[in-house]
Amino acid sequence: MWLLAAIISMVVCFLGFKFLYPHPDFSNDSYSYIGIAAANDNASVRPIGYSKFLRLVSVFSTSDVVTTGIQYFLIELSAFYLFISLIYWIKMRKAISVLLFVFLIVNPATLFMANYISADGVFSALSLMWITNLFWILLRPGKWDLWISLGLLFVILWFRYNALYYPFVATFVYIISPYGHKMKIFSVAGGLMVAALVYLLVTNSYEKKLHVSNFSPFGGWQLANNALQMYAYKTGAHTPMPTVETQKVELIAQRYFDTIPQRMKYPPIIATDYMWNESGPLKQYWYQYIKEHQVKDSIKAWYAIGSTFAEYGQTLIKKYPLDFFNHFIRPNSKGFINPPLEAFTTYNLGMDSAKTDAKLWFDYKTNKVTSVFNQYQETLLQPFAAVFGICNLLLLCFAPWGIIKVLKGQLPAALRKIMIGAYFFLLANFAFSIVSAPVVFRYQYFPLLLSFSLSLIMLNAAISGLRFKKSSHGIDR
């Protein structure tokens, strides 16, 4: 019944959505991914996994409907895998099961996520598969589950560096799983080896193409941007820098903050403006670096200075840890209450055309893109951002109850293990997200689906008197 309902709803929802939004949603990120896919580069500003995905799809079709359709059905199939696994292990009331099904499968936010030409949709789908597979390893590991877990982890790490904490989550799950000691050691080592392999492959690709030995030059830009969020608030007027190049960045930053209007010194929200603003200190240093070193390839220079920015950001944060906490980490954590929609605020950044890169890639006859509700996208999606905050607050309230029940051994094994695994992941996601980059809705879509599912499971436990399935699936109490 559930499978048939899922298939029907997927097809109906996708066809209806494509009637309203015939073209994909594009942003500057989209054109970056498309450009890398067209050039078939192995090194990029962003992880190359999604560009390789676009290139793979293009082998079979250049249709944007095919691309967004594959993205949509990947998310939906992954969500259904999570749903069917949860109702297999945990007996839920019918109303709870239906609500979970509707949110995971008949969720309009998924349509917008899949319609966006970006890594976020595929990354969410792969992450859903991965976490569900980890639940099976916790409950009843099969012959191939570990290999599936390691394979998914390898692929995911190529899509987004948001997944850098995934190996630690996997390590935790492997350690508390039913595996024997030797298998636990093998699985933990396997996860760490996968992470190390991706690190070496990515670093080597940068070394070959750009002669830059750096895992993520983008990460250096991001770290410097994060540190600059608290620059105007920092308690010291002068920050000694360890190298000549970081001293140059500091001088540019000082000059920038001395000359900008007062209202611009104290940004109201955590953002990435210092990375992309043409007059910002980071781009100004980039231009200065190109001129001083007479670099002909500006992109190569962009990569090369990533390590300088990383060192600069680290120095600021180490010097002013309390300022960084108060003016980056703490305000950024508010994104877990109501994450900004960011790229999803308006369809196609409010424009009625796509850039030439998209026109060529998807074989459009014109640059024109259309939609029916392009001005109402924010209104449609804002409630889902609010749901994320509600779920996080619910899970925070449920946590003491869950801890007491676990310590007293009063929870069925299935609920206990799923709860521990999901809570650990969500806490790791929170800790990583608030320090690494601005928290936005599209980065938190997969955690939203997981936190909503866990909230319903906990709510079901509270209102149903813990009427769970017996240990007929090999799970003892």
From TrEMBL:
It comes from Chitinophaga sancti. This is Dolichyl-phosphate-mannose-protein mannosyltransferase. The keyword Acetylation does not apply. The chain crosses the membrane at residues 70-90, 97-116, 122-139, 146-165, 185-202, 384-404, 420-441, 448-468. The keyword Transmembrane helix applies. Keywords: Membrane, Transmembrane, Transmembrane helix.
